[in-house]
Backbone:
């Protein structure tokens, strides 16, 4: 390396174990934002649209980099006997494991609002019950793991998958953004449906006292990369509206599709 040459940091250079799930949850999900509602509705409608093609057997789902956000897992719930919440940060894994063991106390304060949006469709409403927190515990599994090490030989294939804020929110390096998408798709069986949520033109984000990275991307970066890797793509860009969640991004994006055969 030449003297003074800048080496861009990568995923491994950031303090993921210090990611504060409570601060992140408070800032992002305590009140449902209109952009999250639009993203969730888009994913719900995609899964409902393709549901006749989903084979009628208990499926395995995976949400990669769950953090404390349950809505991607909730969107997969009607199709899954089990959803793996796959997370790298030890603090996030601890938070998820504590919630899981206690039948999701955050259900009543936060996630029931997101679930109500899903229940506008009968596939979800048919699953609704008084004690959704314990239902969720029985259908989810919390697993520590690194997206870059996802491996179908070790992990098997999943039938449906999500990754939210997400492949672009783990590294400033474009190659790691691509690699995160590749690794997610690599553990999904051919033709498995997936949904990926992303931030547009993100400059990175603060959680409590720590700064985390982002890859600066827009929708075509995702759809172009998925060309040949997936079929039946549908996508949406959602404007941040009058109250952006923070500085340094220009919108949310969601891309759904089926893994290439
Ligand atoms: C911006 S947060 C998104 C959290 C959540 N999915 C959401 O929708 O709000 C990025 C997440 O990626 C996780 N993450 C970072 N590096 C990872 C890695 N190498 N493998 C898996 N997850 C990782 C972080 O711990 C964090 O939970």
Residues:
């Amino acid at each position: 390396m030449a003297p003074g040459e800048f080496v861009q940091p990568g995923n491994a250079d950031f303090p993921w174990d210090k990611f504060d799930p409570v601060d992140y949850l408070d800032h992002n999900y305590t009140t449902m934002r209109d952009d999250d509602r639009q993203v969730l509705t888009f994913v719900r409608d995609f899964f409902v649209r393709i549901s006749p093609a989903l084979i009628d057997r208990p499926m395995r789902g995976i949400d990669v980099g769950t953090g404390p956000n349950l809505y991607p897992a909730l969107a997969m719930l009607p199709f899954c006997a089990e959803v793996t919440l796959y997370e790298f940060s030890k603090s996030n894994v601890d938070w998820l494991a504590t919630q899981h063991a206690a039948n999701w106390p955050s259900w009543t304060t936060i996630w029931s609002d997101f679930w109500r949006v899903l229940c506008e469709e009968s596939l979800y409403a048919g699953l609704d019950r008084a004690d959704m927190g314990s239902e969720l515990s029985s259908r989810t599994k919390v697993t520590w793991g690194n997206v870059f090490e996802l491996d179908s030989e070790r992990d098997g294939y999943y039938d449906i998958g999500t990754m939210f804020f997400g492949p672009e929110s783990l590294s400033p390096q474009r190659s790691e953004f691509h690699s995160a998408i590749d690794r997610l798709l690599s553990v999904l069986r051919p033709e498995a449906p997936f949904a990926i949520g992303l931030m547009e033109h993100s400059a990175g984000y603060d959680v409590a006292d720590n700064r985390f990275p982002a890859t600066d991307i827009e929708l075509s970066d995702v759809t172009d990369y998925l060309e040949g890797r997936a079929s039946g793509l549908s996508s949406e860009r959602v404007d941040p509206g009058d109250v952006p969640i923070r500085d340094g991004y220009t919108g949310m994006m969601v891309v759904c599709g089926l893994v290439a055969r």
Summary: The chain is about 35% helix and 20% strand. The longest helix spans residues 34-50. The CA atoms of residues 69 and 103 lie 15 Å apart.
